[in-house]
Design goal:
globular, single chain, Rossmann fold, 211 residues, alpha/beta, Arc Repressor Mutant, subunit A
């Protein structure tokens, strides 16, 4: 009988949680629990988890550092993964060899994250090869590749129901201008030129989220 692993994702984005839940539990026997940043310390006190995924688009860097320090201090054995790691900000101090299991840049695709998490499940560490050489003033990302980033998938996931840019921004806790940028890039990557075509693509290639 396989052991079910309990992971926590610290985020305000239910869409992100939904994307991860549809990808990993069946494949890796993982149970993902969503905890908002304000409640995370109390959750760790009452529950035992093996991995904590921190969404840096929802959690500011000082708070993320505090969460990781708390886990390390309690010697719970839990490891930490950072999603949406900002390449434009020098936050290398977040990565601690004794507890950080991995990090994924803000431009990482869902496939890239899935492959990396498969390594982490096996007890390995997944840190980008260029991390230590990263220059915050000269950043190369996956955002201009053909693969949708996980944030672009989140946006399309919400768009499938016909949501406006403001609605999407409110659900993902970002600005409307940020949503416009993600949609522009996503439209190019999936080969559509109108919002209607993008909605049709999303309805065919994403699944409905039950709120």
């Amino acid at each position: 009988m396989f052991k079910v692993m309990h992971w926590v994702i610290v985020t305000r984005s239910q869409i992100l949680v939904d994307l991860l839940n549809t990808r990993w539990p069946q494949q890796f026997l993982v149970k993902i629990h969503n905890v908002i940043p304000d409640n995370v310390i109390d959750y760790f006190t009452e529950n035992r988890v093996s991995l904590v995924i921190i969404d840096l688009s929802s959690v500011d860097i000082p708070k993320a550092y505090q969460i990781q320090r708390r886990l390390d201090k309690e010697r719970s054995g839990a490891r930490v993964v950072f999603l949406h790691y900002p390449q434009q900000v020098d936050a290398k101090f977040l990565v601690q060899s004794n507890i950080t299991a991995g990090l994924f840049y803000s431009g990482a695709s869902l496939d890239t994250i899935g492959l990396g998490m498969a390594k982490i499940v096996q007890g390995l560490t997944c840190i980008p090869d260029d991390f230590n050489q990263q220059d915050v003033h000269n950043v190369s990302t996956d955002e201009e590749s053909d693969a949708l980033t996980i944030r672009e998938r989140e946006v399309l996931q919400v768009l499938r129901s016909g949501s406006t840019n403001i609605d999407i921004a409110n659900q993902l806790f970002v600005s409307e201008s940020t949503i416009k940028t993600h949609l522009y890039r996503a439209f190019r990557k999936i080969g559509v030129s109108s919002r209607g075509q993008a909605i049709a693509w999303a309805q065919m290639n994403t699944h409905e989220v039950i709120q």
